[in-house]
Amino acid sequence: MIVLGIETSCDETAAAVVDDARCIRANIVFSQLAEHRPYGGVVPEIAARAHVEQLDGLIRQAMAAAQLEFSDLDGVAATAGPGLIGGVIVGLVTGKAIAAAIGKPLLAINHLEGHALTARLTDDLAFPYLLLLISGGHCQLVLIEGLGRYRRLGTTIDDAVGEAFDKTAKMLGLDYPGGPAVQRAAERGDPGTVSLPRPMAGREGCDFSFSGLKTAVRRLLDNNSSLRAEDVAASFQQTVGDVMVDRTGNAIALAQAFYPDLGHLVIAGGVAANLHLRQRLDVLCRERGLALVAPPTDLCTDNGAMIAWAGVERLAAGLHDPLDTPARARWPLDPDAKPAPFAGKKA
Ligand code: KG4
Ligand code: ZN
Known about the structure:
The chain is α/β, with parallel strands linked by helices and 347 residues long. The protein has eleven helices and ten strands. Residues 111, 115, 135, 269, 302 line the site of zinc ion.
């Protein structure tokens, strides 16, 4: 079974071909970083236009790299949400057109399901496992119980963690995107120089909050012009680590109440590339008798292979989607999840 995967929900245009033997036959990502850098963040309209310009060429490249004809495909998977709606429409409509043209099923994939199932592609992981999804748009702890069975244990009540990294970098005058820049600066800094609040730490539950931390960094910089960016970055990263360990620790306890034999914590999303966080979560997992699974960085960040793989899994389970499936800006992985307490602008 061979599936083409298309991803266009944020600022990466991506196409990949994956089969049910877990072979990634092609995986091509075009990052729009350069186009958004002057604005210090992703501009939705620029992203949508860039997807339109890039996508068909990328799909052609992916098919050529896989040495396949469209008629060799068993299905076409495309991200149908959640994400920036203009981009999602570009990818989904393209996927529908190819599926219709070759007479093969369409798989309309939830982007979060793509991240959630990647560890089954890379590590052949069995259900259930706990997922910590940390990216520029998301910060969630989800119990992955089976295909289509996702129980959200916690989420952010305000900003995503990647956003907090990006905004902190901006305040410190570091590069965009901020995560890698903060990590590099933190390596040369002393986390003990300044202390920052640890939002939600010590509280019950598994929800996150980052807006207070961002405000604390701003106040710190406003009141003290002699601070070194490296020290603030190190303190910030350490604080995020403390919060991650606290919240994920609670989620592990909750997940183990459902599944006493739970064996794995999976991390995904761009922030999962952060070495300090990986190390802290690794220690936590060892203490709790779990193994940490971190897919390779290029499969943690947005890519087409995770969408193709989610398509393979759904197709193998006998699922596919009608050609009038809508694109969705919001699409929770766990529709039964209660809204986060005091939930603000983000899902
Ligand atoms: O998953 P991703 O590529 O895109 C989405 O948000 O969907 O994640 C991008 C985010 C950005 O906020 C970026 O600053 C952050 O991941 N990031 C990092 C690191 N590398 C990327 N954050 C912390 N440390 C890193 N090494
Ligand atoms: Zn993503």
